[in-house]
Amino acid sequence: MKQRKNYNISGDPQVAIKSGNSSKEENESQKSPAVMEKFIEARETDTVELKRSLTLINGIAIIVGSIIGSGIFLTPAGVYENAQSTWGAIVVWALAGVFSLIGAICFAELGTCITRSGGDYAYILEAFGEFPAFLTLWVTIIIIRPVTAAVVALTFAEYAIRPFFLDAATPQHAPQLLATICLCLLTAINCSSVKLAMKIQDLFTAGKLIALVTIILAGFVYLFLGLAEVDGPSQTLERNSFAAPFDFKGEDFNYPKLSLSVYNGLFAYAGWNYLNFVTAELIDPYRNLPRAIWIGLPLVTIIYVMANIAYFIVLSPAEMILYSNSVAVAFGSKTFGSVQWLIPVFVALSTFGGVNGTLFSSARLFFAGAEDGQLPKVLSFIHVRNFTPVPALLFQCFISILYLATGEVRALINQVSFVLWASTGIAVASLIRLRHTKPDLPRPIRVHISLPIIYIFCTIFIVACSIYADYVNTG
User: Fold this and answer.
1) What is the mean pLDDT of the chain?
2) Number of helical H runs and strand E runs in the chain
3) How many CB atoms lie within 10 A of CB 3?
4) Cα–Cα distance between 356 and 189 in angstroms, integer?
């Protein structure tokens, strides 16, 4: 891995990266035909840059795989408890999906007129200048991405260990240790090969979809078997979340808490903008970026709504709240019987792919910021043979590991959601500003101006209400 004179992610051949030790590289390039091929390519173009190797399927896998991580297993209880009704929670899940789709459509315009990697940071830099972009970048790399990776990795670890301790307590610090191993392993894979990282993403995305479809089918089979009993619906169905009322504990309906319900739901959708962080590596981004969004987000929304309906069919209101961080395990114990260990395995598969997607896309953000001088230059280095941003990946892994020993999951979700949606709101505002400041900028995709306005107003409302409802964790 070498530092080059310059470095460009937009594909501009004018920005080249010069070699500092050609003789050493020539010796190293003789190790294998694959290395020699990459070496010759680099010497002929005199550039070492991120390559356009991500297909439409890879793009869909990044969106679906990054969104479906720990959220659907961690936040259903938070959505339900703050929505204060079963149907209210289902509406929140659906609206959160629509809200995310509106944001993703706005990002499709931004991502096709500004095709460099960096996502939110790149758009804010282009529209508002260096200082707002600098603040966004540092908040993202210190809070949003590392905390998200840590939460998802910790969820993976807790569920991966669960099959071995179904009837006993999990050893202390074991989840943190396994989460650290998970982060280090996936970081090493992402450092070694983009194609291998994408194969893992595709594989585990398929696995998590199969897992969630299995949960959905199990919930509806449970419903049909209960309704088919000779004496009428089973007592279990009569106590589920659809039949039993929400326990207000003598209090009135709390409207500001609805914003916290939306926060928890939106946390589960976090990741819809991750593909925009790697547009410099996406083949034909003008076509594949919007296609991946239109396929990926509606698919996730349908799966999320159906999975929560399955949870509500099987679990009572008390069980939903009691098993707040392990709703899927409680669901599995009532539907899968002797093979209930399958549920923790399903969740582990889902979250493992989520960690991989987060690491892959986040490193490109660090990399883009370093290229612009907003971060230490070392984070813009690319491996001369693997074409991967190794220093950026290692830095992100280190920060994420630091978060493993801190924070409570619910509080972390509220804290991350506040910063995340405020940041994406500003990024969407970039679309409106660029329409006025750079009207001649090529826009292969042009969304109706009402969509970013709706998204911005909804973001302001949600953020303001959440501060009022829980100013300690969100303010």
Assistant:
1) 79
2) 21, 0
3) 15
4) 9
